[in-house]
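Researcher: Re-running this chain for the archive, since the previous output was lost when a drive failed. Same request as before.
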Amino acid sequence: MTTIKLKLALRIWLAIYPSITLFLFLFGEALSAFSLPIKTLILTLILVPWVVFAGVPTVDYVLKQFYKER
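Model: Regenerated structure tokens:
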């Protein structure tokens, strides 16, 4: 695997992990009544656009600011 792909995977993970954790913390109890496929559908319908349009761009911005300081 190339270094570029590894960096991309890390950036995506940095956006996904906290997003999923926060979403489940806030809505996990409300989702507990649904079956696993429905929970997964709800989770992905909300979090995929969030990660693509806000999460990864935010991670990119923070990383650029971090490396600019060095």
